[in-house]
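Supplementary notes for students who missed Thursday's class. We covered one full example, reproduced here. Read the sequence, then the structure, then the short commentary at the end.
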Amino acid sequence: MVTWRTLDHRLVTRAREVIAQACVVSEVGRTPADAKVHTAPGSMPPSGDSEGFLDRVVRMFNAARTDDQLRDAVHRAETDLAAYRRAQIQRAVETPDERDSRIVRDYEGLLPNEAARLEKVTAENIRRVRFMAGRDSATGKQRPSTWKTVNDRRVLAAQFRDAGRSLRSTADELGVSYQTIVRDLEMVDHKEMA
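Structure (token representation):
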């Protein structure tokens, strides 16, 4: 277990998230030895020695003793993680659907801006991919299924509206578009008037 002498719990949380991502990525496989990977100055190369990628990431974090050192270690680890992922995936043969499923899988738990920075796409693209996969657009985590039929969804939308929630947050919660919620509420209102 990695421990840090720091007061900034956000840095510690981010470091633990990076370690978790490194665990996932290191299980996928090793970087090919002939891959040309460019990393930030001072960061460790993702391949080339007998030490595993995850071990290098943990060692970087163990060496950090202050907030500044931990912040630098997180930055280096994120850079190495992105380079490691790029080296593992041949983007030329990756279809858009494969890319989308990889984004959903690899960046779960990251904020859209952080995932977009690592993937070199826009945050809106990350949100769209997550939404289309039935995930929470902000975190990428699986949304619990709260409705089974269209009528259930309409009832929930009306309950959320009556509770004062916005239509966009209701749409995100129920996993449908904003316009679908507008139509559902129009149907509910129409049935109530009849």
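Commentary. Residues 29-50 have pLDDT under 50 and may be disordered. DSSP finds nine helices and no strands in the chain. If anything here is unclear, bring it to office hours.
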